[in-house]
Amino acid sequence: MNLIEKIIANHSKYVTVKPGDIVDIEIDARAARDFGGPNVVKTMIEKDLAIENASKTFFTFDTNPTGSDQKYAVNQQVVRVWARNNGVKVYDIDKGIGTHTMINEGLVVPGSTAVTTDSHANILGAIGAFGQGMGDQDIAAAFNRGKIWFKVPESVKLVFKGLAPDNVTSKDIVLNLLNEFGANTLLGYSVELHGELIDKLSLSDRITIASMGTEMGVIILLFPPNDEIMDFAENACGRKLEKIAADENAVYAKTIEIDASKFVPMVSLPGAPHDTIAIPKQDKIKIDSAFVGSCTNGRIEDMRQVARILKGRKVAPGVVLKIVPSTDEVWIQSMNEGLFSIFKEAGALVSNAGCAGCAAGQVGQNGPGEITISTGNRNFPGKQGKGSVYLASPASAAASAIAGYITDEFHIPEVPLTFHPEEKLDRIQKALVDDQINEKPNIIEGRVWYIKEDNIDTDMIFHNRYLAITELAEMGQYTFDNLKGYEDFTRKSKPGDIVVVTKNFGSGSSRQQAVDCFKSLGIQAIIAESFGAIYERNAINAAFPIITYQSVEALQLKDGDQIKVDFETGIIENKTKKTKIQATPFYEVQMEIYQQGGLF
Fold first, then answer.
1. Which of 103, 118, 109 has the alpha carbon at shortest distance from 62?
2. pTM, entire model
């Protein structure tokens, strides 16, 4: 077996597993964040679920450690009280990023399994552990059962030949990989990394690369642990560990060789992490701000790199540099080593540990028209604010903050590039107009179809005899033609309609057409008590609005009623009957994908 298969098999009742198997996996660390955590608690209470093992169950408050947002502050307190009453440990706002805490505290070790509400939980692949971000219901199930089902993915083996040039950092390595593979070449694979370059990488380097597996579309980037990683993990957890490795005759769907000697320092262009280019030498892309932090680049090695470049220099006039350590340990170490003094003397802003602007909850957001160079892992529209975000290494971010434009540390000018105020004002005003044009509505209204039937599967929605159809415009006409009583749905529905159904909508196959057929018809949203797991993921990734509810009885719904749905608050109002209910609002990632028009 390869690495992912060994980890899954070791946590299941099976001796061996193979790609395509769906198995229950014992989860070693089950966590929820301050984002998503309140919904997990709500599910546990409403369904009267007990905790299988409190010692393996955690909360991590990292998305808004300042508590500066009233909703976050309330949610954090709700979770604290519930956790205290149920003997569950909370890594509170003073701790930092949860996935880093899992590694540093030994909650996850090589060969472990972990789930959390963080979509970058696959960062744990850095130590050869299996980590997955999952929805609130999956996490509640893991809290309750100690297990969760998972489909064993196929694996790809990347073999690195040669070493990267000295001016190429770990962030540059993963940006080069994104340049090579894009966002979907390796979609759905577990990817193992091998070669001399990989074995030489530090834990910090591995974390940087692993944290962007999500942006490559992979299930996880898995690093076979070397002796250095094993020593770190054993010290963190306080016990002797057995090193996990793929078998010599392990089977992979693909084996790909990569020449690391050709890697160059890179940046991701705004809007797409995989849209990468070499750092421009001639064109001077002016910046308004720079950000160093996030789960990708907030460790002590990153802080030291930035301090080395900033020492004795100043941030360019008109540029704001924001620095956020990943954990409280990194914050304290940076202070004790005098790094904060260097940052402040250079003109940077330093904040407390956490996810920062990457999670829209702390320092690091930008405004319309603002151009930012960031060490984060995502630059989707709206992810780090309303402006444009270029992704780069800490070294390049620090160098650019000094230069006033995007550059690397070897091309910092003697005199920084400065702005004319009129130029900035024009850019901001244009961005504000564009933002008003492009932003999708968070509130919709439409005529309702109320279909009171459980378990409407994907064959009922879009029968398999139509699966050869790939054009979106052609799909709508076949919607529900295999659902008894609704064979004429496409003739009677109108663009702008909203469909309300009951339990387990979209169960069955993974066919994307079962989502896209509604988009083709102009259906605005589907509201259900629950969705099939694959259908839910397909809909969210396609930016098709779906919402879940506990009960719609209070709405007194009938076909043809006019309803209003607020994706942000989860409030559903029947305007015809003047009734309303509270449903589950969009998750942060769901809103992000919806606003950018799809996963990619």
1. 118
2. 0.77
Nearest to 447 by CA among 524, 377, 379: 524
Pull the structure tokens for residue 9.
């098999």
DSSP count for the chain of H helices, then E strands: 21, 25
Contact between 90 and 59 under an 8 Å Cβ cutoff? The reply is: yes
Q: How far apart (Å, rounded) are the C-alpha atoms in residues 258 and 108?
A: 30
Cα–chain center distance at 508 = 26
User: Tens of pLDDT along the chain (600 residues)?
Assistant: 999 999 999 999 999 999 999 999 999 999 998 878 888 998 899 889 999 999 999 999 988 777 667 777 888 899 999 999 999 999 998 899 999 999 999 999 999 999 998 888 999 999 999 999 887 788 999 999 999 999 999 999 999 999 999 999 999 999 999 999 988 788 889 999 999 999 999 999 999 999 999 888 899 999 999 999 999 999 999 999 999 999 999 999 999 999 999 999 999 999 888 899 999 887 889 999 999 999 999 999 999 999 999 999 999 998 999 999 999 999 999 999 999 999 999 999 999 898 887 765 567 778 888 899 999 988 877 677 778 899 999 999 999 999 999 999 999 999 998 877 777 677 777 766 665 555 689 999 999 999 999 989 998 999 878 877 878 888 999 999 999 999 999 999 999 999 999 999 998 877 889 999 999 999 999 999 999 888 998 899 899 999 999 999 999 999 999 999 999 999 999 999 999 999 999 988 888 889 888 876
Torsion of CA 544, 547, 553, 554, to 10 degrees: -110
Three-class secondary structure of residue 189 per DSSP: coil
Q: Which domains does the chain have, with CATH numbers?
A: 3-262 (3.30.499.10), 266-437 (3.30.499.10), 443-596 (3.20.19.10)
CB 385 within 8 Å of CB 370 = yes
Tokens of 447: 């005529």
Measured between alpha carbons, how far is 531 from 528 in angstroms, rounded to an integer? 7
Cα dihedral angle (351, 352, 358, 362), rounded to 10 degrees? -80
CB 545 within 8 A of CB 442: no
β-pair partners for 222: 192
Q: Which two tokens stand for residue 37?
A: 């955590």
d(CA 24, CA 216): 26
DSSP string, 78-96: HHHHHHHHTT-EEE-TTTB
Alpha carbons 375 and 391: distance in angstroms, whole number: 6
Q: Which residues of 362-381 are buried (b: 16+ CB within 10 A; e: fewer)?
A: bbbbbebbbbbbbbbbbbbb
DSSP string, 532-557: -HHHHHHHHHTT--EEE-S--GGGT-
